[in-house]
Design goal:
Strand content: under 5%
Number of strands: 0
Radius of gyration: 35 Å
Number of helices: 2
Shape: rod-shaped
Distance between the termini: 99 Å
Length: 93
């Protein structure tokens, strides 16, 4: 009986050692996986942000191509242009 207990204890210790060894060898790979997953998540969020900005710019470009009133509005705001018959009043703040 004592031999069986000793053998069972040795097997248990061997099994525990194998589990600890496997965990120790796979731990760096697990850490690397977690870092890669976090980087992928950040990249996906950045991509979504850039795609949203691209979509907004495409809408503006489409409006610039098709809407003359919008083109006029942009020219007036950004370049300060006026029509020849208009008067411009500028106030100091």
């Amino acid at each position: 009986m004592p031999n069986r207990r000793l053998i069972a204890l040795l097997y248990l210790l061997l099994f525990a050692g194998l589990i600890v060894g496997a965990a120790a060898s796979f731990w760096p790979a697990w850490q690397e996986y977690r870092q890669a997953a976090a980087a992928e998540s950040r990249a996906r969020m950045d991509l979504a942000k850039v795609e949203a900005e691209l979509h907004a710019r495409e809408k503006i470009l489409d409006r610039l191509r098709t809407d003359p009133a919008y083109v006029e509005l942009i020219i007036r705001r950004r370049l300060g242009y006026t029509r020849p018959d208009e008067m411009v009043f500028k106030f100091e703040e």
